[in-house]
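Incident review: delayed structure delivery

Summary: a single-chain prediction request sat in the queue longer than the usual turnaround. Root cause was a stuck worker, restarted by the on-call engineer. No data loss occurred. The affected request and its eventual output are reproduced below so the record is complete for anyone auditing the incident later.

Affected input:
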Amino acid sequence: MKKATASLFTETVARPLADRLRPQTLGEVVGQDHLLAPDAPIGRMVAAKRLASLILWGPPGCGKTTIARLLAAGVNLYFEPVSATASGVGDLRKIFEAAQGRRAAGQGTLLFIDEVHRFNRAQQDVLLPYVEDGTVTLVGATTENPSFELNGALLSRCQVLVLNRLDDTALELLLDRAEQAAKRKLPLTDDARTALKAMADGDGRYLLTMVEELFARPAPDKLDPQKLADFVQRRRPLYDKAQESHYNLISALHKSLRGSDCDAALYWLARMLTGGEDPRYIARRLTRFASEDIGLADPQALPMALAAWEAYERLGSPEGELAIAELVIYLATAPKSNAAYVAIGAAMRAAEQHGSLMPPKHILNAPTKLMKDLGYSAGYEYDHSTEEAFSGQNYFPDDMKREEFYCPAERGFEREIKKRLDYWGELRKRLKT
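Output delivered after worker restart:
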């Protein structure tokens, strides 16, 4: 009896589609040409058969593990994979001992550590001497910014390479490969196919998991975007409010507001809210923005921020999120000025530079006879008693020249403030003559 030929979809032991379609050569890896092309960093290393220790930093499902495995084959190294979430120092020491034995026999070892950022500082330090002397070539994979999660000593011994999230072209290529393997098309309309790639959010592994569900679906009819959404569970957007994405998105929101791009600011707000960010954190940062980037160009910005924050506290989610959205629109469209922010910074530097200078005696109160005898309050002019309600006296320390810290912008309400300052400045000059 003739034995049936195995295929990607007829295996005795079921394996996930993502595993069955895993690239067998570096040339089959999609979306990372900036690293894998012949003239790119990894391409050059493989061509030279010399691999440096690497940290592969990128989002889930972009090919980090696959690249590490293929690198080992490409430069003839023994592949030793471990997960930082399931391994400790004892496991590492056993690996190093085995690697030393292979090294003595002429075989190098590629130590692949998945989620290397999960190792604590002490565990990372254990790696250092073995990476340093070449016992192992380390390839670590991380979804988190290595600058924050890995210690400097380890980073100095590794080259950090940044992998891209898979774009539409790369995801489409994965869909084509899955269809070729299945020898049939996905049961999707064109719009649903586009929606499927959007659901994957740049994660090739997740895309192929959804594809596998679709191929297993018994009904032959094509799905439109709505039916696809009903059939396949939509993936939650990638966001970890304790890690780098938290800081990236609040930075994107802040800079979109500063650039007066209302729609972009609303998008980043929505990204944070759908990712599970605490709206109170967003409200706090928006209040800071109202002071730092709008200031007195629109004096209502800060009260608006506080009101939106208070509205959220009273209403909670999701009703209170509308108040935050309204605040984002108000701040994005308000005139911008950082003059107050710059002014207090300049004043702080002056205070540090000049030290503990005394105020001039004429603006000091003299509640005791001794203080009056020492000249406190002597010569003080009560501004309200003057014709302009302005005496023009000096209020800086006697040993410090007058400095100008606040320079309002010619925007919004600060245009009016500038007129006031110019008026007082001209009056001060006139009274001195």
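Verification: Strands lie at 54-57, 78-83, 109-114, 137-142, 159-162.
Action items: add queue-age alerting; document worker restart procedure.
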